[in-house]
Design a protein that fits this description.
heterotrimer; A mainly alpha (275); B mainly alpha (308); C alpha/beta (439); A: 275 residues; mainly alpha; MetI-like fold; disordered C terminus; C: alpha/beta; D-Maltodextrin-Binding Protein, domain 2; two-stranded antiparallel sheet
C-alpha cells in the first residue's frame, strides 16, 4: 500500500514537472531576452544565457513612457471591466439557469450566436456607433462593452445549472425573495467559476489592444499594450525592451491569479459544507 | 421529488417581470455592442464597400449596393472551400488534443499535493506568454534541422518533418502550439468544475473501495460534463475564428496550407480593401458556426449531466 | 422598381439605426456634416506671412515610422518646426507598425482620421485611388527626389510626399570572399558574376551559402526590371507577369535554390532569419535594406562591405519610401501642407533625421547627407547614393496588396519545387487578371 502510494506520488511529480517544463520554456526565453543588450532575434542554437546581461531594457521601458500613469490607466480599465462583466453576466446567467420566462432558451441561443461573429467585420460599424454616441476618447467606450460578455454568461449558466434547485427552494421557503436567493445562495455557490472568470476577463481586458487603440487617442489615457506596441517598428522591433515590458505587464495578472486561486479553496469548502 | 419539481416550476415560473431586471444590463449591451454592428455588417455584406469610404453617409447604400454578388462569388471560388477544409483540419486535430491536455492539467491540479500552488501558476504561464514571444520560440523549436523537437525525435530514430515549412505538417504544428497555449486556460475552467463537484460522491466511492481511475471515469468525468461541454463549445467557436497564431507563425503559408477563414476575412477587409466581400465571408462563417453549435446544443442531452 | 423598394427598405432600417445610435450625441453633427465623398483637391494657398499673427492652430499627425526607437527624434523635429512656425502646433500620435493600418482604415471609414498621417507605399496606392486623400499643393517640393516623388503622384496629382527613404544594396561578407579566393564585388557586376562568386562560396562548406535573396514579390518587381521586364505594361492597363524577360528573372532566382543551391531552401535555412544567417557568417551575400547597417555593425564579427546591386541587361535598384498624406477634411489645409513639406524636405528635418541614424530623407541634393558618408562600416557607403541612379518604381495600382500576395504565393510554390517557374508565372498572370480590374 505505501509503496503503491509512493509510486503514485512519484509519477505525479514526473508528469507534473515534465508538463511544467514544456509550459515554461518560452517564458524563460522571454526572461533571457529581456536581459540581452541587443534586441536579438532568434539565433540557432538558442542563446539561453545572455552574454552580457544588462538592465538596459528595463531602464528603457521605464523611461520610454509615463509608466506609472500607463499602468494606472490599465488597472482602472481592467478592474472596472472585470467587475462589470462579473456582475452583469452573473445576473443574466441566474435568469437563464434558474428563472422561467418565455423565450428563455431562444434568448440564450441568441447570446451564444453573438460569440460566433468574427469581430474583424463588426469593428468598423461598432467604431462608428461609439462615435455617434459621443463616446470616442472616453474610458467608457472601452469599459462599457463589458456588460455584454456572452462567454461569461455561458460559463456561469453552465455552473448555475449544476446547483440543485432544492437549495434555492429551501432559501425561498425561508422567506427570501428572488434577489436574496441570487445573492445569498446562487453567487456563493459559483465562487470557483467567478474566480476563474475574473482571471480570464481581467487578462483579456488587460491585454486588449486594438479596441483601446481605436477609441483612446489621448496620450494621457494610453494603456500598457498600446505603449508596448510602439516598440514595434517597420524594419525592426526592439525585442529586448518588448520582452521586458511584456514581463512587467504579466505581473498584475499573476497577482490576480494568485488571489483568485485562494477563492478556489473557499469554493471547495462551500461545496463541501452545503453538500 | 417529481412533485417538488412541478411545484418549483410554479413559483419559479415567475415570468418576464422577475427575470427582466437580471437581464437588463446585458440586453442593453447585446443591442449596442453586438446587434447593431452585426446588422450594419449584414448590410455591408451586400455592398462593394472598400472599407475606406466613410460608412453610413447619405447615399452610401445606393452607391455601393451589389445584392448577393459577394455571396455568390465566395461560394463559387475554390479558395473558400480550401480555407474551410483547413479550418476543419484544425478543429478535428485541436479539440481532442486540447481536451486531453486540459483534462490532464485539471486533474493534476485538483490533487492535494505539495507545491500544487506553484504548478497552478506555472501551467497558466503559457496563457500569459505573449504570442510574439511564443511564436518566436516555437518557430525555433519546430525548425526542421536544428530545432529541439526534431532533435528529440531523432533520439528515438524518427526523422521529424519540416513542421511549419511543410504543407502537410504546418497545420498540425499550429495545433500543437495552440494546445500548448490553451491547455492552461481550459484546464483552469475544468479545474473549477472539478472543485465544484460534491465531495460526498468521492467519500461514498472511498467507502466502496474504488481506485483512482474508477473514481475519475465514474464520478469526475460524468459530473464534469457541463464544464466539458462549455469547453468544447467555446473551443470550437474559437477554432473557427482561429487567427492570431496563424498570422504570426505562418501568415497562411506554406502554399496556402494554413489559410483559414478569419485570416481571409482580415486580409480581404484590411489588406485588399474589399470590406463588403469580407463581411459576406464572415456572415457565411457565422452561419456555419451557428449550425455546428446548434447541433451540439441539441446533442448535449445525450451526454451532459446537470445535477438537477 | 423592385430595386428601388429594396433601397427604401434598407434606407429606412438604416435611419432607425442611426436615430438609435445618435441619441444624446454631440459627435453626430461632426460626422454627418461632412460633404459626400470628397475626391477633389483642397486648395492650398501659399503660406501666408500674416498667419503668424493669428491664433496658433493645432494639427494632428499620426505615424508609425518613429515607433521602435525614434519617437524622440520625431519630437525633436516637431519642436524645431514649431519654433520656425509659431502659429502651428503639431500633435503627434505614434502607433506600432503591425496594427497601424488596421486602425487607420477604421478611423478613416469612421470619419475621424487625423489631419495628416503617414502611409507606406502599398497602402498609399489603395488610399489614393479611392479618393480619400487631398492633393498637396501650394508648397515647394522641388528639393525632393523625383523618382520618390513620382511614386506618390497619381494622374498628375501629388497626393503624398516621400518623407523617409531607404534603399537596398548588396551586402557581402569579405572574409568568405577571401576564403573562396574571389575578388570583391564591384559596381559593374552582373547577375552572372554574382552567380559565379556564389558558387565558389557555396563550395566552402555544407552550411555555407552564396547568397540569400527572398523570392517574393518585393524582390521580384526589381529583378524583372534588371532583366528588362515589368509586371504591367507601360500604361498599366494589362498584366505582363509571364513575359519572357520575367520568366528569365524568376528562373534565375529559383534556380539558385533548386539547381545550383547557392541559396538555402527552407529546410536548409532551418527557420533562422536571413539577417541572422548573414551575421553568423553563413552567407556570402545578401541584398538587403540599408537599415541593416546598424544591426550588422553590432552583430558581425567579420569584415563586410556593400556595393550597388548587380543588374543583368540593366541595373535596377530598390527603394522603400513612406509618404505623408493629408486628410481632405482637415480644417487647416495650409498649415498641414506646410508641416508635411517641412517634414519631408527641409534641411533642418534632414539634419535631425541623419544625426539620429534614422532612415534617409528623400532629398535630391545629397550634399545635405554628406555627414552620413563618414560613418563606417560599410567603407563603401557611397554605394547607397550611387544606387539612387537606378531606382525602379513599384507598379502602383489600386489592388497593390492583392497583386503582391498572388505573385509572392506563386513564387514561393515555384521556389519549393511544387510547380515550375513557367506554371507559377502563368498562374499568377491568370489569377491577377481574374481578380484585379485595371483601368
Amino acid at each position: 500500500m505505501t509503496t503503491k502510494k509512493k509510486l503514485g506520488t512519484l509519477s505525479f511529480y514526473v508528469v507534473a514537472i515534465l508538463l511544467a517544463v514544456v509550459a515554461l520554456i518560452p517564458f524563460l526565453w522571454m526572461i533571457s531576452t529581456s536581459f540581452k543588450s541587443r534586441g536579438a532575434l532568434m539565433s540557432i542554437p538558442i542563446q539561453w544565457i545572455p552574454e552580457n546581461p544588462t538592465w538596459d531594457a528595463y531602464i528603457k521601458v521605464f523611461s520610454k513612457f509615463p509608466f506609472a500613469k500607463t499602468i494606472g490607466n490599465s488597472l482602472f480599465i481592467s478592474i472596472s471591466y472585470t467587475f462589470l462583466t462579473l456582475l452583469s453576466s452573473a445576473m443574466a446567467a441566474f435568469a437563464f439557469a434558474k428563472l422561467r420566462f418565455p423565450g428563455n432558451q431562444l434568448l440564450l441561443g441568441g447570446y451564444l450566436a453573438t460569440m460566433m461573429i468574427p469581430t474583424q467585420v463588426t469593428m468598423i460599424p461598432l467604431f462608428v456607433v461609439m462615435n455617434r454616441m459621443g463616446l470616442s476618447d472616453t474610458y467608457a467606450s472601452v469599459i462599457m462593452p463589458s456588460i455584454f460578455r456572452p462567454f461569461a454568461v455561458f460559463m456561469l449558466v453552465q455552473q448555475m445549472r449544476t446547483i440543485p434547485n432544492d437549495f434555492l427552494d429551501a432559501a425561498r421557503i425561508d422567506g427570501a425573495n428572488v434577489f436574496q436567493v441570487f445573492v445569498r445562495v446562487a453567487l456563493p455557490l459559483c465562487i470557483p467559476s467567478l474566480a476563474t472568470l475574473s482571471i480570464t476577463t481581467f487578462m483579456e481586458s488587460w491585454n486588449d489592444y486594438l479596441w483601446p487603440l481605436l477609441m483612446l487617442s489621448d496620450k494621457n489615457k494610453m494603456t500598457l499594450p498600446i505603449a508596448l506596441s510602439t516598440l514595434n517598428g517597420q524594419y525592426a522591433t526592439e525585442y529586448n525592451v518588448l520582452m521586458a515590458g511584456s514581463l512587467i505587464s504579466m505581473i498584475p495578472i499573476i497577482v490576480i491569479y494568485v488571489i483568485a486561486q485562494k477563492q478556489f479553496k473557499y469554493g471547495m469548502m462551500a461545496g463541501g459544507i452545503k453538500g | 421529488m417529481k412533485k417538488s419539481r412541478t411545484e418549483k416550476s410554479k413559483h419559479q415560473g415567475s415570468g418576464v417581470l422577475v427575470a427582466s431586471p437580471f437581464l437588463l444590463p446585458s440586453l442593453i449591451g447585446l443591442m449596442v455592442f453586438s446587434l447593431i454592428p452585426l446588422i450594419i455588417s449584414g448590410f455591408i455584406s451586400l455592398t462593394n464597400w472598400n472599407g475606406l469610404d466613410q460608412l453610413m453617409q447619405p447615399g452610401f447604400f445606393q452607391d455601393h449596393f451589389i445584392g448577393l454578388d459577394n455571396y455568390k462569388t465566395i461560394l463559387t471560388t475554390p479558395e473558400f472551400w480550401r480555407t474551410l477544409g483547413n479550418t476543419a483540419e484544425y478543429i478535428v486535430l485541436y479539440i481532442p488534443l486540447m481536451l486531453a491536455a486540459s483534462l490532464l492539467v485539471a486533474s493534476l491540479l485538483s490533487r492535494p499535493r505539495k507545491a500544487i500552488g506553484m504548478f497552478r501558476i506555472v501551467y497558466y504561464i503559457p496563457v500569459l506568454t505573449s504570442w510574439v514571444a511564443a511564436s518566436l520560440i516555437w518557430k525555433s523549436v519546430l525548425a526542421p534541422q536544428y530545432g529541439a523537437l526534431n532533435g528529440i525525435l531523432e533520439i528515438f530514430g524518427i526523422e521529424g518533418p519540416g513542421w511549419l515549412l511543410d504543407e502537410n505538417w504546418a497545420m498540425p504544428a499550429i495545433v500543437l502550439v495552440s494546445v500548448w497555449k490553451d491547455m492552461g486556460f481550459f484546464g483552469l475552467i475544468l479545474l473549477s468544475g472539478i472543485i465544484g463537484i460534491n465531495r460526498t460522491y468521492y467519500e461514498a466511492a472511498d467507502i466502496d473501495g474504488a481506485n483512482g481511475w474508477t473514481k475519475f471515469t465514474r464520478i469526475t468525468l460524468p459530473l464534469l460534463t457541463p464544464s466539458i461541454f462549455y469547453v468544447v463549445i467555446v473551443a470550437m467557436i474559437n477554432s473557427f475564428q482561429l487567427f492570431p497564431q496563424i498570422m504570426i507563425m505562418t501568415g497562411g503559408g506554406p502554399n496556402g496550407a494554413t489559410q483559414v477563414m478569419v485570416e481571409r476575412i482580415y486580409q480581404y477587409g484590411f489588406r485588399y480593401f474589399r470590406m463588403g466581400y469580407a463581411a459576406a465571408f464572415s456572415w457565411i462563417l457565422f452561419a456555419i458556426i451557428m449550425v455546428f453549435t446548434a447541433i451540439q446544443m441539441k446533442g448535449q442531452k445525450r451526454w451532459v449531466h446537470y445535477d438537477d | 422598381m423592385k430595386k428601388n423598394r429594396l433601397f427604401s427598405l434598407i434606407a429606412m432600417a438604416l435611419a432607425v439605426l442611426m436615430v438609435f445610435t445618435a441619441c444624446g450625441s454631440a459627435a453626430t453633427t461632426q460626422t454627418i456634416a461632412t460633404e459626400s465623398k470628397s475626391t477633389g483637391s483642397v486648395e492650398t494657398a501659399a503660406v501666408n506671412e500674416d498667419a503668424s499673427s493669428a491664433e496658433p492652430v493645432t494639427i494632428t499627425y499620426c505615424n508609425f515610422n518613429s515607433s521602435g526607437g525614434n519617437e524622440e527624434t520625431l519630437a525633436k523635429m516637431v519642436a524645431a518646426f514649431e519654433e520656425e512656425h509659431p502659429n502651428i502646433k503639431v500633435e503627434v500620435e505614434t502607433i506600432g507598425y503591425d496594427d497601424y493600418f488596421t486602425q487607420m482604415q477604421t478611423r478613416v471609414a469612421g470619419g475621424t482620421a487625423p489631419d495628416c498621417y503617414e502611409l507606406n507605399i502599398e497602402n498609399f496606392a489603395a488610399y489614393a485611388n479611392k479618393g480619400i486623400l487631398a492633393e498637396i499643393t501650394g508648397v515647394d517640393v522641388s528639393g525632393l527626389n523625383e523618382t520618390a516623388l513620382g511614386a506618390f503622384n497619381v494622374d498628375g496629382k501629388q497626393y503624398g510626399l516621400p518623407e523617409s527613404f531607404s534603399n537596398v544594396v548588396l551586402i557581402y561578407n569579405k572574409d568568405l570572399f577571401d576564403q573562396a579566393g574571389v575578388a570583391y564585388p564591384t559596381n559593374d557586376w552582373t547577375q552572372d558574376d554574382l552567380q559565379a562568386a556564389a558558387e565558389k562560396i557555396r563550395a566552402l562548406g555544407d552550411d555555407i551559402f552564396g547568397i540569400w535573396q527572398p523570392i517574393t514579390y518585393n524582390e521580384f518587381f526589381k529583378v524583372v526590371a534588371q532583366y528588362g521586364g515589368a509586371l504591367l505594361n507601360e500604361d498599366k492597363t494589362e498584366f505582363t507577369i509571364n513575359s519572357p524577360e520575367n520568366l528569365a528573372a524568376a528562373t534565375a532566382l529559383v534556380d539558385r535554390v533548386l539547381v545550383s543551391n547557392v541559396q538555402p531552401n527552407a529546410v536548409q535555412q532551418g527557420g533562422m532569419g536571413d539577417w541572422d544567417m548573414f551575421m553568423s557568417g553563413r552567407l556570402g551575400m545578401i541584398p538587403t535594406g540599408i537599415w541593416a547597417f546598424q544591426t550588422f555593425t553590432d552583430g558581425c564579427d567579420f569584415e563586410w562591405d556593400i556595393v550597388v546591386e548587380p543588374g543583368s541587361t540593366q541595373k535596377a535598384t530598390h527603394f522603400f519610401s513612406n509618404c505623408v498624406v493629408m486628410n481632405p477634411e482637415t480644417k487647416y489645409p495650409t498649415e498641414v501642407a506646410t508641416w508635411l513639406a517641412w517634414l519631408a524636405s527641409s534641411t533642418t528635418s534632414a539634419d535631425i533625421r541623419l544625426e539620429a541614424g534614422w532612415d534617409l530623407p528623400a532629398l535630391k541634393d545629397l550634399n545635405a547627407l554628406s555627414s552620413y558618408l563618414d560613418i563606417t562600416p560599410p567603407d563603401n557607403r557611397e554605394a547607397v547614393f550611387e544606387s539612387l541612379d537606378y531606382l525602379v518604381m513599384p507598379p502602383v495600382i489600386e489592388d497593390y496588396a492583392l497583386m503582391s500576395d498572388i505573385i509572392s504565393q506563386k513564387l514561393a510554390a515555384a521556389a519549393d519545387g511544387t510547380i515550375t517557374v513557367q506554371e507559377a508565372l502563368d498562374q499568377a498572370q491568370a489569377e491577377c487578371e481574374a481578380q484585379i480590374t485595371l483601368d
